[in-house]
Amino acid sequence: MGLIRALLGLLKGLLYALDGLRKVLHLILLLFIFGALLAASHTTLPFIPHRAALVLAPQGRIVEEISGNPLERALAEASGDMREETLLRDLVDVVDHARDDDRIRALVLDLDGLDRAGLPALQDLAQSIRWFRESGKKVYAHGEAFTQRQYYLAAQADEVYLDPFGYVLLDGYSYYRSYLAGTVDKLAVDINVFKVGSHKTYPDTWTRGDMSPEDRENARTWVTALWDGYKADVAEARKLEPALIQAYADEAAAGVKATAGDLAQYALARGLVDGLKTREEFDAIVAEVAGKDDDTGAFKAVDWHSYLSVVRSDEVLEHGGDGTVGVIVASGEILDGEQPPGLIGGDTLAARLREVRDDDDYQAVVLRIDSPGGSMMASELIRREVAALSAAGKPVVASMATVAASGGYYIAMDADHIVAAPTTITGSIGVFAVIPTFQRTLAKIGVTSDGFGTTDLAGAMELDRALGQEAKQILQANVEHAYRTFVDGVARSRDRRPEEIDSLAQGRVWTGADAHAAGIVDEMGGVDEAIAEAAKLAGLKEGYDVEWIERDLSWRDVIAMRLQSAAAWLVNATMPRSPTALPGVGAAMTELRALLALAATGRPVYLCRCRLD
Question: Which of 331, 406, 428, 493 is catalytic?
Fold first, then answer.
């Protein structure tokens, strides 16, 4: 027995020693990690030659807010599923700053990596490019090819060059949807739709096999308005007639045949580009203005990512004006609870608005909205905080970006002033709820449901049973109440009669220009106009500060960002890539997931299917 106790004591002591060694090693590892983080966080400003060109090369989608938290982005990059995004504000800021920087002699637009962008976002960036040109500096664009979005920005340049083997693709805007009524019927799923608004067509995806007359009428209006805006802007930039932009697309087959199939020559013949040049030839043209880089043989270039650190450094030095306008971005679908960047969490955004209300550093707020809407409850929580900010004496100006529709309009309606771009998609004042039930689907494989409840409503919302009449009546009544709440809120905020707003509502989608004419938007403009109006309402003098209020990062987020590259490389080297899904199947699965997500809430929804970027 004594020997056993001695052995147990020795083993216990050994375990304590090993545990102590583990703690020491853990401490050393943490010190190493934080040392690496400290070293990584120490950045130096890039060297800017006294004569160079700024290269603006957006990647992926141009967004108002980068989506996902740092850890999610690191894991997505590691698995090869990283969705590239470029922040619109970063692009605008570097161009605006370079305009007054004597070292930057020219701006080069490298747009090959640009994938998606809403027309209002392109217009905001195009305005900065035009201001750059008006300063007397040259803007050049070159591409191996130009898609429609890429060409919009390229057209703002003084000189546009296309690779001799390239093309310019202008195919207009389109609005097509996937309809799953046939799939739903084959699966024997019952789709229960509750809505108010003759033009609230979001649920059509699951109940129809084609586009409804109301949806076609509505879409024809706003999609045509976007295309007209695109043609007008490009034609003005290139000193062409808008009809020539239309003809470029409509007459493409005959035009390309006339150039013996040479797409680049077709673009040149129609005046969309100034010349056909290889990359080396283009570099030589820019080098005449920006100087030649002896190491590369190309022109002296400053990468916009590097230049951004100069911009942000100068902003810190310039801080200290007469009052501050805070800008808060609300980007993505509106969902309940806490949500990461790229989505709007009702609790997340409401809390941030509340913090600004209690912070004496801010005298006014611009709420920059890029959202098709979403949860009614989350939208209401945000609206209350907007109203509370205004009531506290801090003016709120809503700035509508690419989309501010349905719930995106709801969170804007109590602002003191609403600013939208002419091509913003807004309105869609309507409500719906969708509840699928699967009792017939389950019956196909022999699964049935039976039992009892203590009330007529007990078990009424179970998805394996048909929806009862009482539940249907309650849901429809609740949706009608939500619609009246929406319409009455807009009428109160716009000082209009509810009947007037109802005639503008019914789920109709409006462009910003049409919404302004209808009186549900106050002013045409972008975020700069919204900031100026917020400062004016707050009584701020010239020289006020503007601060974009970012989400606070936890220490875990910071570590994730610092270790992102290393983690991505390690996992990417060992993780197999997922196969690409068939486009049709992927679209159907996306719609079905959306349906189940809506059904899970059991609540009315302010949501619009009206985005074209």
Answer: 406
Phi, psi of 172 (to 5 degrees): 75, -175
Instruction: Reply yes or no on whether 536 is catalytic.
Output: no
Q: Into how many domains does the chain fold?
A: 1
* DSSP symbol at 114: E
Per DSSP, 102 falls in state T
- In the structure, what pLDDT confidence band is assigned to residue 456 with cuts at 50, 70 and 90? confident
Nearest-angstrom CA–CA distance, 57 and 47: 19
Is 286 inside a domain boundary? yes
Cβ pair 388, 357 in contact under 8 A: yes
Tell me the C-alpha distance between 434 and 601, whole Å: 10
Domain-embedded: residue 78: yes
Residue 565 contacts by C-beta under 8 Å, 6 or more apart in sequence?
Answer: none
Residue 345 CB neighbour total at 10 angstroms:
23
Establish if 461 belongs to a structural domain.
Answer: no
* Res. 532: pLDDT tops 80: yes
Please list the helix, strand and coil fractions of the chain in percent, rounded to the nearest 5, in that order. 50, 15, 35
Distance separating alpha carbons of residues 606 and 598, to the nearest angstrom:
11
Can you tell me whether residue 105 is helix, strand or coil? strand
- Residue-level pLDDT at 582: 46
Nearest to 99 by CA among 54, 156, 49: 54
200 noted as active-site residue = yes
CA torsion, points 329, 333, 334, 339, in degrees to nearest 10? -70
- Which of 60-64, 327-331, 519-523, 569-573 shows the lowest per-residue confidence on average (mean pLDDT)? 569-573
Average pLDDT over the chain, rounded to an integer: 88
What pLDDT shows up at residue 265?
98
Q: pLDDT by residue (tens digit) across 377-409?
A: 999 999 999 999 999 999 999 999 999 999 999
Q: What are phi and psi of 4, to 5 degrees?
A: -65, -45
Of 195, 200, 277, 394, the active-site residue reads 200
Where residue 296 sits, what CATH number does that domain have? 3.90.226.10
Helix and strand numbers, DSSP H then E, in the chain: 24, 23
Q: Is residue 447 part of a domain?
A: no
pLDDT at 361 over 90: yes
Global pTM value: 0.85
Which range marks the domain in which residue 92 is found? 52-174+211-311
